[in-house]
Amino acid sequence: MRSLKSVRLKMPFQTIDTVNTLVMILVGAAAIMSKNSSAESYVVAESFMELKTSAGRAKPIYSVLEKGESFSLLKIRSDWIKVKSQNDEVGWISVKNFYTAIGEYEFNEKQYHMSSKWEVGFAVGKFGTEDSYSLNTGYYFLSDNFFPETVISMDIVKASGTYSNTTIGGANLAFNFYRYFIVSPRIIVGSGLMQNDSRQSLVNGGRNIQLFFNYGMALNANVYKNVNTYMTVRSYSLVDTKENFYDWRIGISGVFN
């Protein structure tokens, strides 16, 4: 049975240089976002603004902001907004009441990402020199009071090449920065299994399964309400054969509660 090394084409130097350039761009974007991490502030224009303990009409009132007090937006969940007052009080207000409190009639939902718990996406790209497509799902299990927001996700990648087909199944831990911005960076680490099936026409062709570790970065863009586009660049390292492969993807995802 041939190993992965005997049936897979190596990436050309131009491709490696391109991937390294993309990684540098993503790192730079993350640095820029870090320098501009403060959320936009608003001022109460009406007589008062009530904050609830959590999202929901039946939830009790936690605090009342007076006219002239400032506050910032932390995140959006469905029709509710989590805010922080100038006195560091954190509470929730409905989108409708938010409009009324600041004296405006329209809220730019693209400016802040909806803070949902689940994420499902589809992407296409390149794994090494092979065309690939992938499905992924993730859950924000640390998001409300933890920075950066932490996501546990699983993805399945299928790649097809001249000499072999590759199937990848992995689990990842992602750290998402400033998800309430239109564009936000993400750092990804993970592990899983890679199955490589050689073409039957090859002599000694067969199946090879190996453990891998991967790391990379992603850049997410909130394009409409709970719809995102994203780009990821990752490096995969195989445990047995010590081979390394680069992977990049461009995709679309949806988030929901």
Task: Describe the protein's topology.
Layout: H1 4-7, H2 13-35, E1 41-43, E2 48-52, E3 61-66, E4 70-77, E5 80-85, E6 90-94, H3 95-102, E7 118-127, E8 130-142, E9 149-160, E10 164-176, E11 183-198, E12 207-224, E13 227-238, E14 244-256
Antiparallel strand pairs: 1-4, 2-3, 4-5, 5-6, 7-8, 7-14, 8-9, 9-10, 10-11, 11-12, 12-13, 13-14
Structural overview:
It contains three helices and 14 strands. With 257 residues, the protein is mainly beta. The strands form three sheets. The chain has an eight-stranded antiparallel barrel with strand order 7-8-9-10-11-12-13-14. The longest helix is centred in the N-terminal third of the chain and has 23 residues, at 13-35.
